[in-house]
Amino acid sequence: AEYMGTRVLTESMEAVNKVLDKAVAFYMPPVLHAHEKVYGSMNVWLLRGMDALGDRVPSWFTADFVTWARSLLLFPTLYLWALGYELWPAVLVLVVDFGDFLDGVVWRWWHGRNKDNPTLSPADQFVDGFVAPSAKSLRLASQWGQWFDAEMDKAFLIPVWIFGLSTASGGLLASAVLWALVLIEGYSGVIRAKRYFGDESFASPVSIKDRNDSGVKSDEVGKTKQTLEMVGTALFITTWAHWLGLALMLAAVPLAWESLRRKIQHRVVLALLPVSAVGALDYATLVYLDHARNLGSRLVVAIVYPMQVPVGLAAAPLHMHTVGAVHAVDAVVAIAARPGVTKETLLLAGADIVAHRNERTDAEIEAGIDVVVLP
């Protein structure tokens, strides 16, 4: 009975996902096209304006400043809406949406300006007493703006939606839409934080379906969703366009679900590692394991021994403990290099894909094994 219940639930979720995929494929392209056309033109215009100002742009006018400034508009938005105003809180929501775009423009402008004015080269910095940041610190710093921007979007919208529930306008449909957005986006924010602080130091250079950086930054689905949510929320506040706003937010629900589904996609990766690489876990090997881990949600490392060396030799437990001590690794298995062992290990580990640093072999092709070749 428990198995049947799980099977029915799984099949139901797959059916729902298929319906949502069709809905998203139907209306996302025109919304994304309009978004890219409008904001693409604004991007060019704003960058030209900042280039014209040059050194007159104050140093405090950074992407983080814009993000904080637009996020603090939450308080006047809720205050004016609570007083019964419609136009001003709606305008403030649209200002926040523009601010979400502006902080990206500002970041790109400062990034390009800093590239044009380099400081010391990395080689010059490594002198006696120089403290170098870790790879994780560099990743956190490089992804900070993307993560902070996405989280502040939710920190603004979720309180506005919760307040919208208290207005009791729109009836049961409005309550259902608002609650769906609050729960989905709230959980998505938790996943973003978990991914930002918990992901491995090196992002994978190879992308595969349903696994991208949307755990930290917004992708095309996220951009379309954000537009529908912001514009829909602004119109929802007004009396004259309330139902149009509700329709836009309703259209954002499948996109929000798809964005969340991509973040929680479960995928087990089997990474093949020759035993010769275990004795000295060098930088390249550690980066390879990080790349493999970031392809999925779980990493199983298979230490591959030559056929002439018995797997049960005394050093095998030490090798497994050594690899198991790497932060990116979730489980370790020792295998002998023999025909068909990759397929056997794939099934044994419950893995979905195989990662290694060699070209895909004929045996893997014949066995239909999904292989990702990493540098």
Radius of gyration (CA) equals 25 Å
What percentage of the residues does DSSP assign to strands (E)?
Answer: 5-15%
Q: Percent range for helical residues?
A: 55-70%
Give a short account of the largest sheet: 5 strands, parallel
What is the structural class? alpha/beta
**Overall mean confidence score, pLDDT:** 80
Reading the helices and strands in chain order gives: HHHHHHHHHEHEHEHEHE
In whole angstroms, the N-to-C terminal distance is 47 Å
Sheet with the most strands: spatial strand order: 3-2-1-4-5
Report the uncertain regions.
211-217
Oligomerization: single chain
Question: How would you describe the overall organization of this protein?
Answer:
The chain has helices at residues 2-53, 63-71, 74-82, 87-116, 122-125, 135-167, 171-198, 220-237, 242-263, 283-293, 315-324, 341-349, 362-366, and strands spanning 268-274, 298-305, 331-336, 353-356, 371-373. With 375 residues, the protein is α/β, with parallel strands linked by helices. The protein has a 5-stranded parallel beta sheet with strand order 3-2-1-4-5, with helices on both faces. The radius of gyration is 25 Å and the shape is globular.
